[in-house]
Amino acid sequence: MPDKMVTIRATRYDPEQDKEPRQQSYEVPFYDESMVVLDALNHIKSHIDGSLSYRWSCRMGICGSCGMMVNGTPKLTCNAFLRDYWPRPIVVQPLNNFPVIRDLVIDMDDFMHKLKSIKPWIIRKQEMPLGAGEHRQTNEQIDDFRQFSECINCMLCYAACPVYGLNNEFLGPAATALARRYNLDSRDQGLKDRLPMVADSEGIWECSFVGECSVVCPKGVDPAKAIQQTKLDTTLRFVLPYGNRD
Amino acid sequence: MPANWWARKRHYFLYVVREFTAAPLALWLLWLLYDISQKSLVHARAFAIFSAVCLPFALYHSYTFLSLTGSIVHFKVFDRPVSARLIVASMFGLWFGASLVIGFFLTWLK
After folding, report:
1. ipTM
2. I want to staple A56 with a disulfide (CB 3.0 to 4.6 A). Which of A66, A213, B42, B66 is the partner?
3. Taking CB atoms and an 8 Å cutoff, what residues of chain B touch A165?
4. Per-residue pLDDT for A246 more than 80?
5. Which class is domain B1-67?
6. How far is B97 from chain A (nearest CA, A)?
7. What span, in angstroms and rounded, lies between the C-alpha atoms of A72 and A74?
8. Interchain proximity B71–A225, CB inside 8 Å
9. Among B1, B68, B74, beta carbon nearest to A162
10. How far is B59 from chain A (nearest CA, A)?
11. Which of A13-22, A210-219, A237-246 has the lowest mean pLDDT?
12. pTM of the model
């Protein structure tokens, strides 16, 4: 029996049985300082209650699937160490601002729809034949968008954003950051294809710069910066002579 | 979203305070415009007290606004991006300089 135990209070919700979500407590052995909240959930799933549902995959902060509210803050549970919370109980809830499917699993459809709408891929007016070689970039050109390309679509920024919580028509932080990532890419020519979504009233102009999206981002993407810079760029495109050219 | 979402985190609370600083500043401006339309300070003493009350709101709003410019403004000099810290420092410098110039003219005009 390990010396230390940690209390995990996880949200349980079965839409076929429960009227609303409830909290259930589990005592989990805390035997290793490197244990993370995801390890505790896996212990519950394997040894205490196999019916607990949650998403996870890589366990190393890359796949972005294990995002949950940990003591009220959006976190990747694979990156939330028990030692930072112990001996206090740890409350694990599904990500804020999304419908709950079951227990800790949220419905991602709205985000996936928004992600697709900003066309997160390289758009060319005319594709070069493969024989013409690569689209070459300098290090400086890569540096322009590298930060925004680190997004792993974990949706923590949406859970932290009160603007999205109050109005889920808002395009949101990650989708805008990824739109900016492609708009800044020297190989891309799809700016005008993305502008109708990004520069819409439910796009960048809905953001009032709370900034919490950047605080919770586990990859340092800084979506708030992407949104504000896009506001400035689209304004300059509008007011400067020839600003609207490609 | 629960109605008390803004009270759940310090960051949210400071954001709401930042947004609400616009309210007293708007009232101050309306009062000033009214006095200008009357071509005299109708309640000079009360206006001076209200101005003193509004000053911290104006300073806080300016401080947060200028602090965020490092995230918003982005440009390159000789193909190198100018650092956010330098942009913010420049903005505060311009603010200080502009305050001195305006203060000088207001004192001089008096």
Report:
1. 0.84
2. A66
3. 1, 5
4. no
5. mainly alpha
6. 24
7. 7
8. yes
9. B1
10. 18
11. A237-246
12. 0.91
